Sequence to fold (305 residues):
Amino acid sequence: MTPIFKFEGIYTPVITPYFEDSSPNLDALAETIEFLIASGVNGIITGGSTGENYAQTVPERIDLARFTHEQIKGRVPLVVGTGTMLTQDSIALAGAAREIGADAILLASPPYSVPTDRENALNALAIDKVADLPVMLYNYPHRTGTMMGEEFLDRVGRSRNFCGIKESSGDINRVHLLARDYPHIQMGCGMDDQALEFFAWGAPFWVCGGSNFLPTEHVALYEACVIEGDFAKGRRIMSALLPLMRVLEQGGKFIQTIKHGVTMTGIDAGVMRAPLKGLNKDDKRALEQVTRVLKSTIASIMAEG
Fold:
């Protein structure tokens, strides 16, 4: 079955820059979006956890999605995150995504309630019915407490709108399952330190928070593996990226690190909303060093032609 929408390339879950009073800095958001598009990312996701959706009201998320859509102007696909604890809030976000003119929605399991596969599928189908847009599922059981299991995938697969999944379980066996048994749902990398493995198993897209400030380097890995099929080159690029992945995935300060990375590019990403706090001096220095080395290494690899 041919998907109704093809998720391909690097999809950036864009940050939300804030002023010191925690109000959105829309000028900085516009600057970030322009930086990402100019750097070659293939799509932008608004309302994801990297954008601090958990600290935003539904109206705020809708306003940010509308602003992002207006800024993109159709140059790359826009995916609107609908993940919330309450089904009615997710439905409201899904309806707004359709009204705004989004290209797709991102749909996660509701956290804390721990639904069964059947309950989770019925919840997803209710959201899908309102949006009637292509859906990128988001399987992140470490955050939601719920795995999108085989019964779930079988049930939602009855709607052609479910055509992609950001797989963030960290379980490599899930990659094998999705590639072999669910080829009609495009598998995307949602676990940054496994990107090479995902591409080796045919994943056509990667949702990566680090592309907020290192888009060129993330695009380079995608192009080496997926476009060129050069996994020897891909391994070298991935090796250069791994120290960053360790900082992002194992440092316990994922959003803070990404936002400081954006600030390092010259765009003021601002503060985090409570309860998060910014990086300390040692963390900043470590990120700056890792970033400097990987940029230089990947630039050398790319210069080899």
User: Anything to note?
Assistant: The mean pLDDT is 96. The chain is about 50% helix and 10% strand. Residues 175 and 198 are 7 Å apart (CA to CA).
